[in-house]
Amino acid sequence: MMTAQLKKEWFISCIGWSAFILFMSATYVLYDWSVPPAEEINNRPWWALQEWGLWYLLTPVVFRLLTQYHLANQLTKQKFIHILALMLCISMTYQAIFDFWILCDPIPYTMLYFAPTHPVVLFVLSYLWHTFLRPDKPVHHNTFEVESGNTTTQLSFSDITHINSASNYVELHTEQQHYLKRITLRQIEQQLPDSQFIRTHRSHLVNLDFVERIQIKPSGSGLVLLKNGKMVSLSKAFKPIVKAKLQHVA
Length: 250
Prior knowledge:
single chain, 250 residues, alpha+beta, five-stranded antiparallel β-sheet, three-stranded antiparallel β-sheet, 49% helix, rod-shaped
């Protein structure tokens, strides 16, 4: 059974390419009117179909792959490029074989003729998908979307031990590893529950569930010691707030 998303992908593919092929056929008619009879294209719809008909099938495939990887949180930049590169190889190979066997055109000529247009087609398709077809991802509460290698995963708030600022990025630390996310510390602080996370420094946030104790230095600043042995800076400005949250800590 076709889903609404799948129907939309096929509808845009069929309507879009039908309109384009009709347009190209019309331009061939105008071309024939402007040249001597010996140079006319003739059979204009077939000429347009043999050049662009393959995209009736490839376009839904491109849309489906992008949608599937997007919903699985695996559509990284690298994966996106791989999908478009695969479709480019398939389209160019088909066109070269078709033109060689049916039209007796040399393969290098076909490659040179279509090399500029097929990447443009894929660019337009990716734009259409991003603009009209990209579905909303399922909402994940109490998680952050982070990249791990070539995949995207959901990181639970409760797994984060502390967060460090790194310019326009933050480092999200867990007990096993850390992740880099493009967002400011202020922005990420607004998304976290203040009952669970607290700022200890202008560059640090800690998860209260992982705090072992605090250690105050003679200078007035200090360190927050976590249960996993990590230490996070505690500034004078945030010390009263942290101590109020952790009344059992000296």
